[in-house]
Amino acid sequence: YDAAVQQANGIESGIFYHFGHYDQCLKLTQKQQQQQQQQQQQQLQQEQGQEHSNNNSITIVAKYCLVDVFIDELIVQNTGSRKIRQDSSPQNQTTELLIRWGACMPASCGPNDIAIFAKHALQRKVNVNDNMCQLYKPELHITAGMYTYAFVICFFIFVTVLSTLYHTYLLSSKSDKDIIDVEKSSAKPQRTLDEILLTFSLIENCSKLFQASKDQLSLNCINGIKSLAMLLILAGHVLIFIYGSPVYNVEFLSQNIKSPIFAFLPNSMLVVDVFLLLSGFLFCRILLVELRRRHGQINVLILYVARWIRLTPAYLVTIGFYMTWFPSLGDGPLWQQRIEREQERCISSWFLNILYINNYFNVDKLCMFQSWYLAVDSQLFFLSPIIIYLLNRSRKYGIILLSITAVITSIIPFIISYTKNLSPTLMIYSNEAEDINSSYYYKNFYIKTHMRASAYVIGLFVGYLVHEMQARNIKLPSPIVRFLWLLATVIGSSCMLTISRFYAYPYNRLESSIYAGFHKIGWNMSVAWLILAASTGHAGWIQKFLCHRIFAPISRLTYCAYLSNGIVELYYSSSSKTAPQISYIRVVDSVVSHIINTFAVALILCLLFESPIHALERILLRNSKGSRNHQISEKKSNKSESPHTSEEQIA
């Protein structure tokens, strides 16, 4: 009784999670078992002097359940409900609310029994799902899938240790001239075996990870842009999961999300377009160079195969973790519901993820909330050579096709948003942020390639412009440069910060559709100018800052950080056992700690899987037919002979 919620408070202020004492409830089982053992020992001691009585103790196993309680006719002052925000008129709205109520019941009670009891006690409409009830689990139940996954991980660790020891042996027993350099010895087939043995070496991969980039095509600024964009995206993910988790002072979030000062956090999804733009830019820039160098003779199929090999292994390892061990690594009132839900989704649709079509098929079971990006980027990567080939063969017709594509991809979001009365973008409401994958806007519009393609197309256009400007050594006049910097700053800031208006005012169909259709264009054009200016010598101190070597390792870890961030955010949000009070200091603390943890996991994922397998791919495809073609995509972000490519460094 003491572990269950006695009385809810703060409902009118938007506190909808009332957990009670989760640990105390489940530990009641242990206490009862200990009491039974003590009673049995006492009975054994009494057997010598008197006849044993048959009064056996009874063990009562406790069960913790979160009961859905529906409360209507209640004025709510602060909430993150899309329905309340769009119903306009008064600030305080009346609606039916869903409250999560912690109950501690005997394990013998089924969901129906608990529902009957809760309905009688609370005099409200209630619902109890079996996946919201948990028992104390003293022992870990290991399945065949968990054994298989553990074996694969241990195998890679074992190979990494052997490779590192072998590399250490070479370093200690041979002079520097005799040590095999993977890159410099690539033309010596007799050393292929030694190269393969060194691909998993921690010494080799750490050296590649932290070395400075070689600025072959004046593209070092990409490291800084990618690093800063990833940090901002991760900060936005933290805010989304905080908003979708139990919070004591909901009004803090609901008020600050309306402020333009903090708009960069709820609108951090806009920054994802930076990576789509960069992907299109780099692919166009490098492919044009290689097409002209080889007179248009490139086997595109090799590019597709090389990309799949680079992206998929680390991706599969992450998906496998969701499917096997993740549900066993934590607990909490929300843990079973949220983490096992993610596990079920990955079991249902993992094959769609590695085919990179999961943003269109079985979207109700989308595995990994952030995985849509890989699908969108891969689909655009697959289609973009058509435009790039035409740009190389006929500048006039290539620009015409690129311009038509840009116009179409810009108009599509406006038309769809207007005809379907959609929000201006993916807006963050607590009742939807709890499970972002189930959001109607997210799964039907936000993750679709036709809604995101404009950024990639602008990237292709900028790649072509930079290619021509560098080839002809074109420099813009200073007045034009200053004007473009001012224009890009104003437009980019406006597109980012004006999202706060849609949280503060009632829904307007036309206004929302205009923003949905064109705010990404303005933002992407601003970022496009930053890339063009920094790549062609028009950025001054900004270019020097973005090219700083500190960004090189961060940039190379962005792909693995993108994969691992979902694990970090789901762990923290699902293991919460109380509703914390949020403040600016605590938000900053959460952002910093989550970013550090994300990159810590990313480092492990990179050194054990991504970096070694990418090195293997380079070795195995190097001497194959058309192998020179696959090296195009290697250059896209790995100008420093690092084990990463721009396609992999996505968020």
TrEMBL record:
Residue ranges of the TM segments: 146-166, 228-248, 268-288, 300-325, 372-391, 398-418, 453-471, 483-503, 523-542, 592-609
Biased composition, class Basic and acidic residues, residue ranges: 631-651
Signal peptide: none
Name this polypeptide is given: Uncharacterized protein
Residues of the Acyltransferase domain: 220-608
Pfam families, sorted: Acyl_transf_3, NRF
Keywords on record: Membrane, Transmembrane, Transmembrane helix
Nose resistant-to-fluoxetine protein N-terminal domain mapped to chain residues: 1-116
Entry GO MF terms: acyltransferase activity, transferring groups other than amino-acyl groups
Region Disordered, residue ranges: 630-651
Domain of life: Eukaryota
